[in-house]
């Protein structure tokens, strides 16, 4: 990656549906998180956290597939390695209205490996191809794959090139590529996000070798300048933790990258919309505001008074309060610190 990325420029060609997206993140990108993110960007593609295909098929359909209509475009990410079961889960996801079915071939955690899915599937490209074909045969929405550039100490470009070529032969047209190897033993999932080096050039090479495929780059992207740089080489960029912890950055994406209008909402208006959402969720589903508010704690990042505001919205002792009262208390604490 160059040390001086080019300045942001307006999009000159039609936007790929995968031009910008927020990554699937277990325990984070639930439907409440995605509702919050949709208040910040109308066009960015959103992904569910990974859902075990078996859990959907065997009685957990509504619990795992329910989402808010406002979330579109939204993709369902599945974990699994049995073509028949994945096909059943994909069909249910499509029936529920998801815009895409994504297969996880990138998660390195040992817990996921015990289920024979995630990054370990990269060692079995023909099985992945069978899974993709089984899903594509029963749905009319795109079936995509998210994967790594390699596993363990396999660092040859040939490995990921052959994986993509094999899976593309089964009909997959979209590959979301985390630009790190996945170490299947000896590293925690957190370490797997930081220790193996990022090798963006391998993702760029995939696009050159497979120009007809949609190649999306994932891993280590933290700024709009980096997004603009990567988009010179690939079709799309996916961000994860940076977008989650600093969500306001997403408000520039529609205008800067996706051909949309500038974002005019203020952080205070977004917070008010979330409080209204919490009130609806409490009535309709019995959801506590505490389960929702955790996703918006980065909303006021960098603003004076944000620390005390976060403390109020993180206080489990207030769980039984109505969301509007918690919001009022947070505002009072905010103003007290701002005036100090």
From TrEMBL:
The active site is at 107 (proton donor). It is an enzyme of class 1 (oxidoreductase). Its cofactor is FMN. FMN binds at residues 77, 146, 178, 218-220, 240-241. Residues 22-323 form the DUS-like FMN-binding domain. Keywords: Flavoprotein, FMN, NADP, Nucleotide-binding, Oxidoreductase, RNA-binding, tRNA processing, tRNA-binding. It comes from the Bacteria. SUPFAM superfamilies: FMN-linked oxidoreductases (SSF51395). The record marks 104, 190, 193, 307, 310 as: Interacts with tRNA. One of its GO terms (molecular function) is flavin adenine dinucleotide binding. Catalyzes the synthesis of 5,6-dihydrouridine (D), a modified base found in the D-loop of most tRNAs, via the reduction of the C5-C6 double bond in target uridines. Specifically modifies U20 and U20a in tRNAs. This is tRNA-dihydrouridine(20/20a) synthase. It comes from Ottowia testudinis.
């Amino acid at each position: 990656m160059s040390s001086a990325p080019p300045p942001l420029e307006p999009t000159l060609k039609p936007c790929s549906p995968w031009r910008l997206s927020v990554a699937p993140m277990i325990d984070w990108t639930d439907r409440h998180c995605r509702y919050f993110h949709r208040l910040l960007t109308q066009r960015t593609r959103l992904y569910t956290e990974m859902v075990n295909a078996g859990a959907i098929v065997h009685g957990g359909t509504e619990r795992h597939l329910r989402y808010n209509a406002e979330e579109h475009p939204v993709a369902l990410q599945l974990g699994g390695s049995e073509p028949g079961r994945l096909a059943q889960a994909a069909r249910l996801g499509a029936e529920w209205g998801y815009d895409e079915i994504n297969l996880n071939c990138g998660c390195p955690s040992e817990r996921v490996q015990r289920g024979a899915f995630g990054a370990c599937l990269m060692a079995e490209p023909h099985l992945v191809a069978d899974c993709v074909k089984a899903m594509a045969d029963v749905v009319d929405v795109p079936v995509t794959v998210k994967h790594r550039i390699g596993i363990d100490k396999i660092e040859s470009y040939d490995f990921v090139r052959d994986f993509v070529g094999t899976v593309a032969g089964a009909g997959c047209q979209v590959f979301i590529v985390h630009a790190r190897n996945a170490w299947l033993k000896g590293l925690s999932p957190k370490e797997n996000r930081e220790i193996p080096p990022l090798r963006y050039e391998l993702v760029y090479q995939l696009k050159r070798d497979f120009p007809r495929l949609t190649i999306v780059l994932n891993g280590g992207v933290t700024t709009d300048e980096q997004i603009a740089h990567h988009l010179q080489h690939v079709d799309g960029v996916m961000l994860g933790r940076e977008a989650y912890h600093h969500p306001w950055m997403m408000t520039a994406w529609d205008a800067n990258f996706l051909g949309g209008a500038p974002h005019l909402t203020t952080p205070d208006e977004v917070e008010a919309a979330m409080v209204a959402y919490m009130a609806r969720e409490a009535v309709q589903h019995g959801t506590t505001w505490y389960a929702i508010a955790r996703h918006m704690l980065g909303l006021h990042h960098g603003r004076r008074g944000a620390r005390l505001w976060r403390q109020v919205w993180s206080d489990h002792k207030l769980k039984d309060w109505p969301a509007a009262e918690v919001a009022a208390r947070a505002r009072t604490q905010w103003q007290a610190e701002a005036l100090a």
